Amino acid sequence: MIMIMTTNNNLNPGLGADFQIQLLAAIISDPNFGLSVLAQLPSNFFDESYRRMIFESIIKFYKEHNKIPCFDDIKTRVLLDYGSGPDGNTRVDFCNAVLENILRHIKDDELLVVKSYAEEIVKEIMVKRAIEESQLMISQGRKDFNYINNLLSKALSWNIKRSTSFTIFDDLDENMSDNYRQPIPTGLYEAIDAPTNGGPSRGEIFTFLAPLGTGKTTLLTRIANNAYISGHNVLHIFFEDTKTQISRKHYACMTDLAQSELNQNRQYVLEQIKYFEQTLVGKLFLHRLPSVGTTIEDLYNIIKDYKYVKGIDIDMVVLDYIDCLSYERKVKDRLEDEKMVMRKFESMAYEENFVGWTAIQTNRTGINKESFGVDAMGGSIDKAKIAHGIINLARTREQKVANLATIGFGKMRMVRDGMDIVDIHFDNDKLSIGTNYKSAFAFKDDIDPEMINIPIKREENPFVVKDDFKMNYNPLIKEDNNLELYNKNSLDVNSINELI
After folding, report:
1. Of 134, 157, 180, the domain-final residue
2. What percent of the chain has pLDDT over 70?
């Protein structure tokens, strides 16, 4: 149980306002660190009343909701705790000013140093507390030395909550449950969801491997839009397209129109997009970042800003594409930098519990080929070792003309790989991917096709949920919208315009 300590010891000699502000920023932005510190740090560590009020509001919020609050939650809690009385408005204004200062430090590189130093301070507090309790017990004649030894050992061994070891017998029921993975389906049943057992799960990163001009942005945009339609919060990062170009691609996804048909159906598009804005529970956030000088840490700061400042958990990050990021602003070794970017992206997906999608460009050997392997990857091959899944996108000139492509599964950690889906429907203009139009499955010689049962399904409309589609791909509509159009099985976009 978290206790607010009120001893009068001088706990922060030489530690001024800047350190305390950064410590509060670290508590809010790192839940594991925050929970460990809240449980042990006395509130009078903060020697200024408004910083102390914020710390105590964080503790009260945690006690009620069992989680570290975001900035908006803290503001609400401060208003509730300190906003009454003749000086209430003044106290709230000063607390909000301190919160704005904390917000400016949320992305500081020095927070790692602050956390390390805070760990030493908390351990010192715990040791002093154990010694005081031991001295009190002895003075009262309670000489339970085993208890005293355990008390001191616990204080000396304390550290910030981190990953611990486990055995295969831990969480056995959970590990063997039907829902041991948490996939977020792409909505591209034939092309991705069926072959990958539902799509990538939270904490996993998948990447498309494709040559230039093949349709990487088409695939990533369709996946981002389908996840948004199915009720998830999606962060779509792009570098090389304009805001208008990406927005129009999403309009095409949401209206089942080709991009070239949008302007001639302008009123229909406007009403359709407005309808989805009012009814869908998920959020779609678009960010265009500079293609030069942007680091993977810049991306992480965007994700942390949504989570810890705005209180929005991101379910899927679509990065178009990872080759445009660097690990350091001044790159010394390009291949090592590429590997570290992919490693950091994988770590972010696990720590923040989102599905990661991105793309990597092939070298010249992948151009105008009907199929290729992971060895066609441009840059560092170590990127392939880190990704949970690599899906190859190959298109010959003839396939492009015929709106076809080959989807290959170069690497899959959770299912069997080595399979190609040849001549799958792929329309860049409509962002339409996957029907049974001239589809066929080609397998390596050592794979028995009968062992992989992948039904072919026609993707006539991405918003129609098939009865036998067990991937839980249902558009989530706010419950307060009483629309006869919607039911739990289908969403007929052709009748939306009649409703509006």
Report:
1. 157
2. 81
The count of other CB atoms within 10 Å of the CB of residue 302 is 17
CA distances from 78 to 35, 38, 39, 52 (A): 19, 17, 20, 11
Q: Does residue 129 share a domain with residue 215?
A: no
Is there a domain that residue 324 lies in? Answer: yes
Domain shared by 463 and 346, yes or no: yes
**What does the H/E/C string look like for the chain?**
CCCCCCCCCCCCCCCCHHHHHHHHHHHHHCHHHHHHHHCCCCHHHCCCHHHHHHHHHHHHHHHHHCCCCCHHHHHHHHHHHHCCCCCHHHHHHHHHHHHHHHHHCCCCCCHHHHHHHHHHHHHHHHHHHHHHHHHHHHHCCCCCHHHHHHHHHHHHHCCCCCCCCCCCCCCHHHHCCCCCCCECCCCCHHHHHCCCCCCCECCCEEEEEECCCCCHHHHHHHHHHHHHHCCCCEEEEECCCCHHHHHHHHHHHHHCCCHHHCHHHHHHHHHHHHHHHHHECCCEEEEECCCCCCEHHHHHHHHHHHHHHCCCCCCEEEEECHHHCECCCCCCCHHHHHHHHHHHHHHHHHHHCCEEEEEEEECHHHCCCCCCCHHHECCCCHHHHHCCEEEEEECCHHHHHCCEEEEEEEEECCCCCCEEEEEEEEECCCCEECCCCCCEEEECCCCCHHHCCCCCCCCCCCCECCCCCCCCCCCCECCCCCCCCCCCCECCHHHHHHHC
- Mark whether 148 and 251 lie in a shared domain: no
For the cut 80, the answer to whether the pLDDT of residue 162 exceeds it is no
CB 357 within 8 Å of CB 351? no
Task: State the average pLDDT for the chain.
Answer: 79
At 214-234, the pLDDT tens digits run 999 999 999 999 999 989 999
Residues 6+ apart with CB under 8 A from 231: 280, 281, 282, 474, 475, 476
**Is the pLDDT reported for residue 43 higher than 90?**
no
Q: What CA–CA distance (Å, rounded) separates 207 from 359?
A: 5
Predicted local confidence at residue 202, as pLDDT? 92
**Residue 327: domain span:** 189-495
Name the pTM for this structure.
0.66
- Which range, of 1-10, 149-158, 182-191, 256-265, averages the lowest pLDDT? 1-10
User: Which pLDDT does position 437 carry in this prediction?
Assistant: 28
pLDDT at 436 over 50: no
- Burial class of residue 127, CB neighbours in 10 A (0-12, 13-18, 19+): middle
Cα gap 427→460, rounded to integer Å: 13
